[in-house]
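To: structure subgroup
Subject: Chain for Friday's discussion

All,

I'm putting the inputs and outputs inline so they're searchable in the archive.
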Amino acid sequence: MQDTPPKSAISPGGTAPGFFIGVASGIGAALAWAAGFAVAKHGIVLGFSPAELAVHRYVWTGLLLIPLVFHYGIADVGGVGWGRGFILAALSGPTQALVAYTGFILVPFGHGTTIQPATAALAGILLAAVLLKERLSASRLVGAITITAGLIVFGIESVTTIGTHGIGGDLLFATAGALWAMFGIMLRQWRVAGMRVAAAVGLMSVLVYAPVYFLLFGTGNLFRFGWSETLLQIVVQGFIAGVLPIFLFARSVTILGAGRAATFPALVPGFSMIIGYLALGIVPSWAQVVGLAIVLIGFRLTLR
């Protein structure tokens, strides 16, 4: 079950091959999340509800991953355990997605794509220091403070240009980021391999979230926008932004540690801004650009 890094994964100079694998995994996860943000915002604008998007992100891929759970061992959810699987699914599965998707209804694209990953990075650093006793260096502390300053810029823009409900949207994204940070802490604490985590989260989504959704809403609305739009959500949300980043992020946590890996979500805003502009034509405001620049500086400091 464990995905323990080799002793040479990170050399004192940080140049061993394992280190670069960990960094590449973290960057890949951030890029996948960014693609998911863009397609989620497209879905919200089109008319998908947050509950529907959560189905497309977790339930269909969960069904496809069930054979993998049986392969690993269904009795203990592939070695993860039923209790741990439920906790991991609550932190990184439909619950987290519902919170984030609702935020996109209230605030602009740039807020969600920056506040959620920045909060995940900030909370991850602090939680790793407090709960896992990972060393909080001066550079990481300054980086955390810098990320906080970037988040404040977004909060100011929400108040001045959106209104008080904008703060509500920002808080939803901050909550989603905090849930993901706790997910990273649990991964490090329990040392569970990436694909086993993805399979367990998928199984829990099928067993818990799917029945609740279909009982409350039925199946009539899931495909009302046509197969092309539905498949776009399933493929990008379910596989690219759902399964893939869980696997990559788990590997990054195992190799680099929870505190250092927690900073990779801070790369998501830059990737999201590029994808959002190219795919959706979304032009960020100057306040969002400034806030993003501050967050990226903080990311650079925390990764040292």
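Points worth raising on Friday:
The CA atoms of residues 37 and 49 lie 14 Å apart.
DSSP finds twelve helices and no strands in the chain.

D.
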